[in-house]
Amino acid sequence: MWNRVSFKNFKSLRNLELDLSEVTILAGGNAAGKSSVIQGILLAKYTSESLNKDEIELNGPYKLSLGRSEDVLYRDANSDDFSIVLSNEDRDLRYFYELDFLNRPYTAKLKDMSSGNLQSFNDNRIHYLNAERLGPRKGQNFDPKETLMTGYQGEYVNHVLNRADELYIQVPEKMKNPNGLERFSTQVEAWMQLVIPDFRLKVTPIKEVDMVTISYGSSKLGNLISPTSTGFGISYSLPIITSGLLASAQENSLLIVENPEAHLHPHSQSRIGQFLALVSLAGVQVIIETHSEHVVNGIRIQLAKRNATKMGTIHYITQKEGETVSSRIEITEHGELSNWPKGFFDQEKNDLFELLKIKRGGKN
User: Fold this and answer.
1) What is the pLDDT of residue 222?
2) pTM score, two decimals?
3) Cα 254 to Cα 92: distance, rounded to the nearest angstrom
4) What is the residue-averaged pLDDT of the chain?
5) Residue 45: inside a domain, yes or no?
């Protein structure tokens, strides 16, 4: 498990160091730098897999879209270099990059690397789900690489459900839902019912065209229906549940999810937070970027129930004079927060105060 990540001159992260826990929450306003933290980790991962390349691509791998080289460098940097460091208790992985705005506008050169054990990072299986996941589709293509990963937008989740059943992939005991059978897809179905009550699914491979269709339903409705007859909540949450269970069945896994709350009712947002906390308790390191207090509260509830609040860390990410800074928030023994910085999920309180003023006749 990685317990710290550091950045220098990467985008708005001039000099930022964050502690990482079993489950780490990145919260904060828009354009504060939360996504940059995740992009930096993914860039380091891609770099570790590409050491035979002279240039590291800034766009494409791991759904990275960093733009041109000048977009990657902190605006007031005094050199054309930036660095990313991942650390745990016994080793550091340090990546030093050099940019050339004129000759290499879309790549970075790995200038130097210091590694205690690079192979450990290469063995680190990362399940990453981008904020922009696929909406309802009647069918999805096979994953040509047969990676047993849902894809960065959930584009292979249908195929993964089918292949995991064919390969008899077993969910570990810590994540086994008693409402599901042994088959992987039924475990996904049972955990989806935590988020969307009475949910049912059926996957059907069509090998002649290398596609897998999926249909949804409930025991109350009886007949299964096409995903295109439902909203976005199912198609956005199904890859999260599937990736979490896959990661829990693998050693040395890291699950990164952006905006798990997207298209979900507050009740379901809390439940998806509880699920992600359980995944972390099963041995998967989880990093979450979220704008939802309901997701955060769900994580707090589940960690407190399991007497495991020390396994969770919240970083409230903000901007100060164009530079990303962080306030660390601990989750205390009973799920309470150690501090509550201004701007941290306080909008409901502010809005209610404004309504109270209106009620009392002070509309200004």
Assistant:
1) 64
2) 0.94
3) 17
4) 92
5) no
